[in-house]
Design a protein that fits this description.
The chain has 196 residues and is of the alpha/beta class. 31% of the residues lie in helices and 24% in strands. Helix 4 packs across helix 5 (176-191).
Length: 196
């Protein structure tokens, strides 16, 4: 079964492909020759995921899913939230984003946060939404060389390591994206098993 994952992010593509059964081949936006940046103008994480999936389905008429992820920090009233990728500006630089976040939390004793992923799947004329959340806290400084995005400053609940320090299989099993993808896979296995 081939399905489009509406992303330009190679790290995300790699991470999600590892979570899927071998019988599912992921196609990226580049694979279908969609080189433009798909607008993300919704005011919720779910809304952005839906917007991207709908764009691909409408323009290319392909089964596809899209995700949007946000880091919600309690002391910052849920920021960066839907602006997580461009928190420090349109250059979408992870280092700048982390630096800004750490700076904004410098005076705060409440460092609790959560990562939330929403996946919108468009298949066979239907749309389905899957969500994954992981609770944790923002560290004082960056730690670890694995992962991407905010991983070096996010320590999941029950662990003493950041996502950037944990092995990929552990991150995937406890992480927000892993939880949402697991629901996606279960749905595909149940409803579209003939495609496997």
């Amino acid at each position: 079964m081939k399905i489009v994952f509406a992303t330009h992010n190679k790290n995300k593509l790699k991470e999600v492909q590892k979570l899927l059964p071998k019988s599912i081949t992921l196609l990226s936006l580049e694979d279908i020759n969609c080189l433009e940046d798909i607008p993300e103008t919704a005011d919720t994480i779910e809304g952005n995921a839906i917007q991207k999936a709908d764009y691909v389905t409408k323009k290319y008429d392909l089964a596809c899913f899209s995700d949007d992820t946000g880091l919600l920090v309690n002391a910052l009233n849920g920021a960066p939230g839907i602006y997580s990728a461009r928190y420090a500006g349109e250059q979408r630089d992870s280092e700048d984003n982390m630096d800004k976040l750490l700076s904004n939390l410098r005076e705060s004793t409440d460092r609790s946060a959560q990562f939330k992923t929403a996946i919108a799947l468009n298949i066979s004329g239907e749309q389905h939404i899957f969500k994954g959340i992981v609770e944790g806290e923002i560290t004082i400084d960056k730690r670890g060389g694995k992962g991407f995005g905010y991983d070096p400053i996010f320590m999941p609940k029950g662990y003493q390591q950041t996502f950037a320090e944990l092995p990929m299989d552990i991150k995937n099993s406890i992480g927000h994206r892993g939880k949402a993808v697991e629901q996606l896979v279960q749905y595909l296995k149940t409803k579209h098993s003939s495609s496997f």
